[in-house]
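Annex B, item 7. Sequence and structure tokens for protein A, then protein B.
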Amino acid sequence: MAQPAGPVARHSGVSRERFQQDIYPLRKPAVLKGIDLGTCTTKWTVDYLSQTAGTKEVKIHVSTVPQMDFLSKNFVYRTLPFDVFVRRAAEVKHNEYFISEDEKYYLRSLGEDPRKDIADIRKQFPSLAEDIQIPEYFEKEQFFSSVFRISSAGLQLWTHYDIMDNFLIQITGKKRVILYNPRDAPYLYLSGTKSEVLNVDNPDLEKYPLFMKARRYECSLEAGDVLFIPDMMGNILLSAGDE
């Protein structure tokens, strides 16, 4: 396991002014609690999501194991109507499936043309976008994309980093998040923006001996929490809920 870097700070009722003055300049991850996210926190049940977004076709990741690895591609891409996908993602065992009855699902929304269009929940899922209020901690012109994600419970995504500041908004369920300081990138065995180290809790130290030097931040997100992730901070998302 990597070296602990300390707990992720938690803040309640953060105003835009406080975020800009006291939190953002530190360039450290922070959990923001008590933010008004709109009606999504009460509305977004399996029934509501499937009925509201309907039969729109979505491209999803399907894996027979809970740890998805982007580098080895231990998953396949499949297409399902959104309502069918949401119900399957909420199941532990499936009566209908692609590979196995306990397969895991992951949706990361894309633009209509993934090569040109950015992910924007307001365009891809307008009926659901009405329910969510994205925290306005930055100017509107600084806003780049809003990626809508849903996963099966217990799914783990690959370790990766993003080149922009992010807000991870947890609407329903719970999520365990592990992050690494950008200064420790030399210890993460990166291939492009992805790390070769998949099992961060029990890494193969014979294969990845430098990984022990990487300092990790860890936090648990509850429904309604918002995690600020500074750009370039390597992160791995361990989902323990519906989204």
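Protein B:
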Amino acid sequence: MISWRKHYKTVLIAVGLLLSTSASVHAQTGDPSNGEKLFKANACNSCHALDKQVVGPALGGIVAKVKTDANVGPDWLHKWIKNNKELRASGDKYANEIFEQFNKTEMPAFANLSDKDIDDILAYTTNPPAAPAADAASADGAGGTDMNSVAALEAAKNNEAASKIIITSLVVIAGLLFWLLLKLRTLVNLQKSQELNAKDSAKAFSFAEFYDKYRMVGTGILSVLALIAFYGVWNWLMWIGVYKGYKPEQPIYFSHRIHAGVNKIDCQLCHSSAKYGKVSEIPSLNVCMNCHKMIPEYKGKYLEPGKDKAFYDGEIQKIYEHVGWDKEKMAYTGKTSPVQWTRIHNMPDFVYFNHAQHVVAGEHAIIDGFNKKHPKKDDQIDVVCKACHGKIDTMNVVQMANDFTMGWCIECHRTTEIDMKNGYNKTYFKNLHEKLKKQFGSGAKITVAAIGGLECGKCHY
């Protein structure tokens, strides 16, 4: 009994030390590397950063911060992460203060995370593993360099070949001009002397006699030149208003390759009116802000040749300036300004084109028809938009991928077969197939042209 009392204080001190350090041990026993993976896998980085406030608070050193602010430990963070709504409903004062402080933005519950998972995440926020600068740089560069090296090399070869052709043509033209100058100089020298010696007399001749002798040849050459000139003028007239390959610079740089290609964002998420409306409108900047409220900087690995992270960050900042967004305060300032986009695709006023009719009713027919015309796998499409606009998910700068002429549209209507798997079409065009067989033979197919796709009033009214 005396022995126990002797060591009583020592035992209490040991227990006290164990309890006081349990919170820090609880937070520090996690694996920071695994915590980083969990942090990204659960999209925590979409609302939080370690070094600054995004949608939620900065999480660097969060274990120490909550201890200082409210004298709570990792157990409180476990409850908050698993179900912050339940924690607030229990009347927890600190939980409700945080909820009010961050504009009542409710954090999703992560009941799927185990205690060990949360310990790993907290360990990551306390002691994040440092990524080697060289490795990070090479990783960022890999996405851009590897994906673009082949295309860049091919473009360089094409430019070199084109330059050689131009230089060769200029040399030939210069040679012809030099030869003509020599002949003219000879004729001028002959005209200077009134008396011609025997040698010069042999060179001199009458142009009239020469033309009379070779009149048929001259007429033929002039006719050919006239036909070439006429064809050139006709071809020029036919290409008025055709801007295939047109890709103007925009006031805010937007890479479809990054958004639709690398990040797999569906076309209709931004161009929602293309599916249900006549016109595919340009998305408002509010659509951009749905994501860029939480994405103030570019963290992707893909980089275009000649562009770096700072360039992309600057373009995101332009969005903030136009919509009046303060990324530090996470609030709108009310100062806005419109963006003067340069239009690329523009149908003439006398042409009627309905996006919804093609995107909804003609989706499967257009995709199937396009892929039949392009049997190579690399040329085929998976989204109806690409049939007209090209593989826009590979374009850094959007350009007109097709002619968009009347002949181009008519050719599509003549070759695209109607989707007879569609229940409406199957019933509505039940007897049309038999009629076409009698009119055009057994191989006749129900195309857009067969159901009135070539009628003038369909597009011109």
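Comment on protein B: The domain at 20-126 is CATH 1.10.760.10 (Cytochrome Bc1 Complex; Chain D, domain 2).
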